[in-house]
Amino acid sequence: MPHPWIPNSSPEIKKRMMEFLGISDIMELLSDVPSNLILHEPPAVGRGRVLSEYEVVREMRRLASKNRVFKDPPPFIGGGVCYHYVPSLVKALASRAEFYTAYTPYQAEIAQGLLQAIFEYQSLMAELYGVDIVNASMYNGSTAAAEAVRMAVRVKRRRNRVLVAATVHPEVKEVIRTWVWGIGIKIEEFGDVSKGKVSAENLKAKIGDDVAGVYIENPNFFGAIEDELRAIIEVAHEKGALAIVNADPILLGVLEAPGKLGADIVVGDAQPLGLGLNYGGPSAGIFGIKYDRVLLRQLPGRLIGATRTEDGKDLGFAMVLQTREQHIKRERATSNITTNSGLMAVMAAFYVSLLGATGLRKIGEAIAGRTAYALRRLKEAGIEAPALRAHFLKQFPVRVGGDAEAVIKEALAHGVHVGPPLSRFFRNMRGECLVCVTEAHTREDIERLAEVLSQVGGGE
Amino acid sequence: MVFRQAKWGEKIILEYPSGKPTFVIDEEFISMGREYLSTLPRDTVRKEPPNIPDISEVEVARHFTRLSQMAYGVDTGPVPLGSCTMKYNPKVNEEVASWEEFATIHPYQDEETVQGVLQIIYELQKWLADLTGMDVCTIHPPAGAAGEFAGALMIKKYLIDKGFENKDEMIVPESAHGTNPASAVMAGFRVVKVPADEAGDTDLEAIKAVAGERTAGIMLTNPSTLGLFESRILEIADTIHSVNGLLYYDGANLNGILGIVRPGDMGFDVVHLNLHKTFSTPHGGGGPGGGVLCAKGALKDYIPVPLVDYDGRKYYLNYDIPRTIGRITWFYGNVIPAVKAFMYILALGPAIREVAEIAVLNTNYLMKKLVGLPGVDLIYGKGRWRKHEVVISFDRLHKETGVSAEDVAKALLDRGFHAPTIYFPLIVPEAHMIELTESEPIEMIDAIAEAYREVVKKAYEAPEELKKTPMNTAVGRLDLMLANHPRTVSPTYKLMKERLLGGEPGK
Ligand SMILES: Cc1ncc(COP(=O)(O)O)c(C=O)c1O
């Protein structure tokens, strides 16, 4: 069946190639496959025939129309990712085919531009997070967190317990548990979600000499700032544990860099940096460390480094320290990761380059201003916001009353989408949900949010 | 072929002079934001701005466009990296997947508002189950390796449920992709290696010798990384099943058998696929990928949650998988690649089998052109047809001329071709692992063969010239000692200034 994506599928070319091989049927090339395994009917996939491009597009339009895009106002949904604006330049550069149709840069000399772009991603993220080294990316923030937990146990060899703040994203907790289950690392929580944040005292109550690492997010799942972060890191260090801090990169123009607060491993999800929502994936996982030989040896993932050409004339870039990776070390590798999130990582580099230090500070301030304004307007509209006691940034919980799940649906009918309902994760938070505001929400959007939330649901 | 890659002396972005106006952020809430931030505990706010220059949009556009001109992808020319299935990425898939209806929907949107994307995922999963002969598939794992890890966990949990806590060994062929042993260990297994026999098949006697009470399973790629179909696959399956072990199928590259043979029919219990290989989604210079995990029989109950499902009326996220291993990632996997893979299958329909047939035809056509060359050998499975890829060895060339597989690869770059995968699989000395996919036209395959012929000829005539390649790429060969030396290794700009350029060892 000839097809333009398969140039040699034309009958004449096929014949010519078969003649060269001395065969009369392509299936002769599969003669070593047990004949009872060969399918006689082509599989019933697609629509049973070859479709033209316009037929495909038509079908996709039909399916796309069953997805609702919240444009006016954009979604106020939080829970790990929020709606942020994606600058056109980021999209334009990401559609450069030399980038997106490339493989991992295994042949450095022909891939210098890609290698430099990834090196720049690593360098920009290191500046943002206040660390020395950032790898070429993990899949997303959740798997970066899980890899960090596993790394802590490799670094602290005889310790087998990791403490996770209760205020961490519930799905990240689940991911961590899955990733350590097979090797028997014990995961325990410290603190209490009803407080909105965790404290150094909470950690002290749980930590011991068997703890390899402490994992915490800032802002946490609820959007609350973990204001005892420095003290928490100190408690971890006093007991010889590594401190792993997950931070939202878009807020690091205004919030202290986790590396500066003493974190040993920093992680994050690059989604806010111009990657879009993508129904949750793909994104890119940020993974960084301070320079330390022991940490570096246990670092998972690919790493691009600067070097010189053999003749010493040019600066150049290459994959480095590959002896940590699966293709060299196999069963002794620090991780199995190979395909990562290359294109998303360089998109994050485009974004951060476009904003610069000034733009990053301003976008943080713009989000902080909207957070303050949204909290005020919601309160004025008689809604309990925030529903927990802490300082919030970008996201916060609100008490919408009654059954949050039902209230969210009602608001949605008015074009305002908040969420997720916290009851989905915490049994005793039936009437609460998250709200997220970003640079992309206008004053009118926030007023509409307050208006709709005060109309729907309500009442205990 | 004439080829000169662009060479721009582009500064590192952090070296650009700062002080230009940057991307506009509206002022409306800035002062309110500053005020709000001033009420936060002092410890929590940033004191020193990150060392990131303020650059104009024009400069950013130009910088990265220039960098892109020093990169090379499938749209530039052939990328015959074996095991990577670098086929053409249809443009219509890129365009449609970037529509707001896919790119701008939130993972916690109400299910009623995302029925389109859920239907796409659901149908894709069904098609993939059909193509693999498995009962259920999920797009949950973000890439192939994540699928392997999840699959290994499923096997472990299933065996524990069956009372086989003692089964802690995973059999992995020496020719396997490095992710296989790495994934098995991540799931808590011990790896037991088995060699290949002369014909290139996994040594059945060796499998029989190690299979036993402690065998949890075997991880196999079929066709193998040598491009050979394991002709005794059914016996392997019987051997493993007879000791209550399970069969894991690494289906990253299904390209040689798509629509012709199915892992489910070969006896496999768990399968992973890579949408970013067989199903045409772009590799993005390293990712993102799109992993798929499939299971059969009792293993169905162990797949990660959530599974996109259909209740006869609407599509939904099913968290009710009785013995699930849990989540491998937050949300639902890499959805955008899934949309592209859906479109690929939608467009091809029954022509999907043509993909495999032509990929196999291309491989063997090139193999026949290469095996006669001086210094070139097939180490395993001489006289056998290959499937999605072929591995040739330059061991003899290396011994006779001093020209290595790497030198040959660099000489190919100079002729405008990306090189194949080199030095893999590890069991083949001086290896080139070549995978053309169905995308390369016959003239391009002839040109690749001709380039190999020229290079090999040159190796016998003037080997020292090949040591100087590449010269037509943006830079010549790199100093990898310097790149990796503990005193100079510089994986960020900050360390580069201190170490590579400063000559100062780190603290
Ligand atoms: C045979 C094989 N198995 C597994 C993988 C791993 O897949 P991924 O890179 O998506 O993690 C690859 C590709 O890298 C592969 O070629």
Features:
heterodimer; A: 460 residues; alpha/beta; Aspartate Aminotransferase, domain 1; Aspartate Aminotransferase, domain 2; 3 domains; 14 helices; 13 strands; B: 507 residues; 12 strands
What does this protein structure show overall?
The complex is a heterodimer of chains A (460) and B (507). Chain A is α/β, with parallel strands linked by helices and 460 residues long. Chain A has three domains: 7-49, no CATH class; 76-86 and 357-456, Aspartate Aminotransferase, domain 1 (Alpha-Beta Complex), CATH 3.90.1150.10; 89-350, Aspartate Aminotransferase, domain 2 (3-Layer(aba) Sandwich). Helices cover 37% and strands 13% of the residues of chain A. Chain A contains 14 helices and 13 strands. Chain A has a seven-stranded mixed beta sheet with strand order 2-8-7-6-5-3-4, sandwiched between helices. A two-stranded parallel sheet of chain A has the order 1-12. Chain A starts with 10 loop residues before the first helix and ends in a 5-residue tail after the last helix. The mean pLDDT of chain A is 96. Chain B has 507 residues and is α/β, with parallel strands linked by helices. Among the domains of chain B are: 13-68, no CATH class; 115-350, 3-Layer(aba) Sandwich (Aspartate Aminotransferase, domain 2). Chain B is built from 18 helices and twelve strands. Chain B has helices spanning 30-38, 57-68, 91-97, 100-103, 115-132, 144-161, 179-186, 204-210, 233-242, 263-266, 335-348, 352-371, 395-401, 405-414, 442-461, 463-467, 480-484, 493-500; strands at residues 136-138, 169-173, 190-194, 215-220, 246-251, 270-274, 291-295, 307-310, 315-318, 390-393, 421-422, 431-434. Chain B has a seven-stranded mixed beta sheet, with helices on both faces. In chain B, helix 7 links the parallel strand 2 and strand 3. In chain B, helix 6 (144-161) packs across helix 7 (179-186) and helix 12 (352-371) runs parallel beside helix 15. Chain B starts with 29 loop residues before the first helix and ends in a 7-residue tail after the last helix. The mean pLDDT of chain B is 97. Pyridoxal-5'-phosphate binds next to helix 6 of chain B.
